[in-house]
Amino acid sequence: MDNLIFTSDFIVNLFDKYRDKLEDFYPSEKWAFEKINSLANGFGEILDVGCATGGLGRALSTHYNVKKYDGIDINKQAIEKANSIIDTYPIPVNFECGDILNSDKFSNYYDNVFSLSCADWNIRTIDIINRCWELVKPGGFFTISVRLTNIDGINDINN
Prior knowledge:
single chain; 159 residues; alpha/beta; Rossmann fold; five-stranded parallel beta sheet; 5 helices; 5 strands; 23% strand; globular
């Protein structure tokens, strides 16, 4: 079964002015950013799986040493918005609309692969996690954040 394709403007409206500054991220995510920065002295090249409008790239590149930021999201409107503000980044940036499981564009290795609050919103969560790990350079980092719930997950689209 293919992953869900989100087609609403909700993602764009939510992330247009949110999660593009470091203070917008959860304490656990900011802790991870600090830990990675201290271990690797910067973030190098980043792949953001489920990037929405690319706020993670803006937030990290204004506080840390980031060489390049690539993002992929399944929501076409989010990627259109991200591309419309691509000139606001101080680093090279590239966005693709698509599913990481069906994309061959990202075949090189990244120093950091992120999937924050999105992999678990898809039917093929385990496949997404495995694909993200495949794209991490040896010695690099994969950071994922997921929702915790006391009910069944979304592996069953009818739940």
